[in-house]
Amino acid sequence: MPATPELISPRSARVSAARRLAKRNFRGKEHLFLAEGPQAVREAAGHRVDGAPALVELFATVEAAERYADIVGEAHAVGARVHLADEAVIADISTTVTPQGLVGICRFLDTPFHAILESRPRLVAVLAHVRDPGNAGTVLRCADAAGAEAVVFTDASVDLYNPKAVRASVGSLFHLPVAVGVPVEQAVAGLKDVGVRVLAADGAGDDDLDDALDKGTMGGPTAWVFGNEAWGLPEETRALADAVVRVPIHGTAESLNLATAAAVCLYASARAQRAFGGCRAVTPS
To answer: For 109-145, how does the pLDDT look when each residue is reduced to its tens digit (9 = 90+)?
Structure first.
């Protein structure tokens, strides 16, 4: 590998093609997206999409290539095109204020919704009206951490491959199936059809999460529907759910932000499902 950058001009064809992926219409046309930073690139290098490596191309500064030589080696090993690039080039491709020196180009990796249903998931996060990409990526990360088997981005939510959403997921979008563009009515109906109880998370919900846990009603397969942080879930979406549940506020805070509320709800279900008698406590026959 040369010790000097091979890409030094932000106007080069390769750099221009990568930079365009910051825009949704170009991502949709190419079925490619940007993954920035060592964690995301490492996950991409180890992930496969329909048998092919998720990572197809990597841009790295000389310093980053030396610091993360293992990641660059993995990129070479899976056949990704690796370019040493000037810092100005990385800054031009990156969508962050302080780039970390690694920017990957990855294949779309979303899963068809029917495939998620066929897997009979026991814990699912449904992003019904989540417009902020940072919130969306963080909820995806929370779902991954809580052990959810799937995440659904409805057609009213932000693009999964928005660079800010990808960064906020910190690699979690490579860990579990994610369906995109599913109408919320279809998502709820499909999940109910495979035996998943659908709970809408809303601060004005009639049911209290603590009470539900005390009653022992949270141990079965569950999907949580999350809405917009500013205005919550529309009435028509709440009406689709089996119950509308609020996270209790025991202190004097006005509310919880979306990602925090999502983490509380998902972990409550995860714990209930792992308790005696929960759906994860029963050994499959």
So the answer is: 999 999 999 999 999 999 999 999 999 999 999 999 9
What are the tokens at 62? 């000389």
User: Quick check: 141 and 65 in contact, CB under 8 A?
Assistant: no
DSSP the chain: --SS-SB--TTSHHHHHHHHTTSHHHHHHHTEEEEESHHHHHHHHT-EETTEESEEEEEE-HHHHHHTHHHHHHHHHTT-EEEEB-HHHHHHH--SSS--SEEEEEE-----HHHHHHT--SEEEEESS---HHHHHHHHHHHHHHT-SEEEEETTS--TT-HHHHHHHTTGGGTS-EEEEE-HHHHHHHHHHTT-EEEEE-TT-SEEHHHHHHHT--SS-EEEEE-BTTTB--HHHHTTSSEEEE----SS-S---HHHHHHHHHHHHHHHHHSTTSTTTSPP-
Residue-wise pLDDT tens digits, 75-106: 999 999 999 999 999 999 998 888 999 999 99
This prediction's pTM:
0.92
Q: How wide is the angle at C-alpha 22 spanned by C-alphas 90 and 154, nearest 5°?
A: 140
Nearest-angstrom CA–CA distance, 238 and 79 = 46
**Amino acid letter, residue 193:** D
